[in-house]
Amino acid sequence: MELRVVQWNIKHNSDAMKIASKLNSVVRGNTLIQLQEVTTSNFQLIEKQLSASDSVFSLNYRVPGPYEGKNRALGVATFLFGGIIKVSFLLNRTLFPERTMVVDAVFDACKIRALNFHSLTGVGYKHGKASNFASIADYIADHEIDIFSCDANEPMVDDLDIDKVLFFDNGDKGRCASLLFGKNKVHPLEDVWRNHHKAKGDLQVESPISYIIQGKIFKRYDFIYALPKHVSVNIEYQLEESIKASSDHAMVLADLLITDP
Predict the structure, then answer these.
(1) CA–CA gap between residue 115 and residue 52 (Å, rounded)
(2) Helix 16-26 and helix 40-49: axis angle, to 10°?
């Protein structure tokens, strides 16, 4: 089965209509869309503009309290086209459970478990960011999932060669981020961009840009990971188009050939 996977941090104060228009333009057949930094108002507007077959929003599971502030008003959302969600839940052991969500989805009788999450920032949370990575790593290590996508706010230095990837020191010398994204990862999923180019023999390819800090520091913070059996036929980082759509992160789009089981 072919599955299009879309990963996108849409930016909390983005124009929901522009975001929805961009999303509608990339839907093709069976499609899984995973969004971060989603407010309740933006989810409601985007949901109305998309003809999704199913959807779920993390802040419907954990409603922000009146005194918790704007940081607890950012959730993650998952939209399906051609599929249905059988089960969905948050990772309640993480520091901000509403920035995580797991869905068990079915497309054409093909079952997919996908995790959607948004990392905490090192500037604001530092030790908390590391602890959050550890909690997510615990879940992925202990449970079978097919796909995860995220805004990781990592790495510090990216490279096609995993041995050259460096992570920020969040009070742990980058150890916890490496459990998910580095050479010390504790799960079998692979970075779709890295695997795609290695399979093609593109060993000199430069890392794509998914986020720009202060207009001059270029990062790849946004990822789609999948089990190696789900082979990629296409992977794109669409930064320019995403900025035009009012986000500050690149949409990441991958076309996978899903093997079940």
Answers:
(1) 18
(2) 40
**Share of the chain residues as helix, strand and coil, in percent rounded to the nearest 5:** 30, 35, 40
Total domains in the chain come to 1
Q: Are 29 and 82 in contact (CB under 8 A)?
A: yes
3-class SS of residue 100: strand
C-alpha 154: how far from chain center: 12
Residues 202, 232 contacting (CB under 8 angstroms) = no
Rounded Cα gap, residues 160 and 138, in angstroms: 25
Residue with tokens 């190696």: 228
Q: Show the domain range for 156.
A: 2-257
The pLDDT of residue 203:
87
Q: What is the pLDDT of residues 195-214, one digit of tens each?
A: 999 999 988 999 999 999 99
Hunting for tokens 């077959």 — which residue is that? 53
pLDDT in tens, 128-147: 999 999 999 999 999 999 99
Mean pLDDT for the chain overall: 96
| Distance in angstroms (rounded) separating the CA atoms of residues 235 and 220 | 14
Q: What is the spatial distance between Cα 173 and Cα 159, in angstroms, rounded to a whole number?
A: 18
Displacement of CA 80 from its chain's centroid (Å): 15
Given a cut of 90, is residue 235 above it in pLDDT? yes
Q: How confident is the model at residue 223 (pLDDT cuts 50, 70, 90)?
A: very high
What is the arrangement of strands in the sheet containing 83-89, beginning at the earlier edge strand? 83-89, 100-107, 110-118, 147-151, 222-226, 190-191
Overall size of the chain counted in residues = 261
